[in-house]
User: Fold this.
Amino acid sequence: MNENSCCQPIKSKKPSGFLLGLLYGLLPHTFCIAFIVFSVLGATVATLIFRKLLLVPYFFHLLVLLSFIFATISAAIYLKRNNNLTWEGVKTNRTYLTILYGTTIDVNLLFFLVIFPLVTNFNSKTSQSTAMALQNYSTLTLKVAIPCSGHAPLITDELKKVPGVLEVKFGLPNYFTVNYNANQVKIENLLGLEIFKTYKAEFQP
Assistant:
C-alpha cells in the first residue's frame, strides 16, 4: 500500500476566484446595501445621511472602480504568492483571473440592472384603493439625467414628497412614470424641484 510521505509539501488551497469576485463586487456596495435596508425599514434619518452621497453624480462609478481596484490587488497578491507575478504568470492563471474579474463585473451589473430598479419600485405596488384613485389621475414620464440606476431611489423619494403625486415608477435606464392629480400638480413645478438642479429632468410627451 502506498502511503503519502510526511515530507511531501502540503498543497495550499487556491482561493476561489468566484468567491473573491463576489466579495469584491459586494464590498464597495456596502453603502448601497445599507441604503436599501434603511429605505425598506423607513429609517428617515439614515436615508437623509445617504442622500448627500447620492447627490454626488459619479458616486457609483467610483464604487465600481473601487471594486476593480480590490480585485486587482487581490490578483496581484495571489500571483505573487505563487511566484507568477509576470506576464507569463497572468496567462497561466487566466482562468482564475477571468472568473475573478467576471464575477466582479456580474455583481456590479446585478446591482445596476436588477437590485436598484427593484428597490426603487419596492413601494410602488398599487393597492386596490390606489388603483381606484389612479383612474382619476394623470400620468407623465420624466427623463432624468442620472448617471446610473443607483440614484433612482433618490429621484423617486423626492417626487413622492410633492403633494398630489400618488405613484412613481422607475424604468431603465432613466425614466420615471409619475401618476399625479392634475388639479394639484403642475408639470413646471415638478421640473422645478431642487433635485433636478443636480440631475436635469425633461418632460417626455
In short: The mean pLDDT is 79. Strands lie at 138-144, 165-171, 175-180, 201-204. The chain is about 55% helix and 10% strand. Residues 17-120 form one domain.
